[in-house]
Inverse folding.
C-alpha cells in the first residue's frame, strides 16, 4: 500500500439475528483532490440523510434528499445511498 491508495470494504454483520451491511473506505494520505471532493459530497449526502431520517418519512423521501446533494454536473452513483433492514424480516419473525 502506498500514499494516495484507498482501501474499500463491504462488511456483512449479523445483528439481532438479522444481517446488516456496511461499506467503508479508508485512504492513506495524501488523498487526491478528486477523492477528497468525493468524500465531501458523500458526507454531505450522509448528513442530509440524517436530517431526513425521522418517523413517518418514507424511504424514498430520505433517498431523494440524499441524492439531491449529488444533483450537479459530473457527479453520479451506482447504488442507493442508504441501506436499511428489511421490515418484512421483522414481521416474519413475529409469526
Amino acid at each position: 500500500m502506498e500514499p494516495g491508495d484507498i482501501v474499500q470494504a463491504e462488511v456483512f454483520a449479523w445483528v439481532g439475528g438479522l444481517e446488516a451491511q456496511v461499506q467503508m473506505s479508508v485512504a492513506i494520505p495524501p488523498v487526491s483532490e478528486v477523492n477528497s471532493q468525493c468524500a465531501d459530497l458523500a458526507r454531505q449526502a450522509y448528513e442530509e440523510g440524517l436530517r431526513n431520517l425521522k418517523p413517518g418519512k418514507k424511504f424514498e423521501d430520505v433517498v431523494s434528499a440524499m441524492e439531491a446533494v449529488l444533483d450537479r454536473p459530473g457527479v453520479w452513483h451506482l447504488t442507493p445511498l442508504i441501506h436499511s433492514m428489511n421490515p418484512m424480516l421483522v414481521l416474519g419473525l413475529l409469526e
Notes: The radius of gyration is 16 Å. Residues 1-29 form one domain. DSSP finds three helices and two strands in the chain.
